[in-house]
Write a structure and sequence with these properties.
Distance between the termini: 44 Å
Largest sheet: 6 strands, mixed
Number of helices: 8
Order of helices and strands: HHEEEHHEHHEHEEHE
CATH topology: Rossmann fold
Bound molecules: zinc ion
Mean pLDDT: 88
Amino acid sequence: MFLEMLFPPKCPYCSKVISYDMTECLACRAAYPLDPMIEVTPKGDICIAPFTYEEKIAEAIKNYKFKGVVFNAKSFSAAIVSAIRKTYYKDMCFEVVTSVPMTLSRKKNRDFNQSELIAKNAAELLDKPYEELFVRTVDTSYQHYLERDKRIQHNKNYYSVIDEEKIRGKKILLIDDIMTSGATLSACSEVLKDAGAERVLCAVAAIVRK
Ligand SMILES: [Zn+2]
């Protein structure tokens, strides 16, 4: 309670002070886009997002990723779950929720996995288990120099599965913070499908429009 008085949570989108049981202020929630976005990744996976990466949303995500405003994750997770529930994919009956693993260099720096926190909150809201199903095994700081198509082909080899038993025959919800080209989500989805996943649905907090 004392900490709550010292550091009251703030709305991720407008910085207004809110109570701990809220994820954003009522005005910002009312301004959410009505319809979720459904995008297709380069390899044909469906990705659902509540937001476009712009203005207040982009600011809130940057504050979360680069300034450690961890509280914002709650709002992103709730928005993702609400977006999924507004689509046909709500009936997909996922059995497990997972996230895109972080890069090795960031892991070495002991950064926390931002996608994992969003995915864990979402799993809780969906009442499904969160599992770390695969890890990143190759670093790709040279990735920018590769052409897009090559990047897609290369990507799936950057990851390896932890336990195939937990993937085989499962319907999996794969979560990341944002989607840009979709190459990373495509590669991760392919890793899961190669390991026998029955279906993979991707979801992110925001889609970057080019
Ligand atoms: Zn607000």
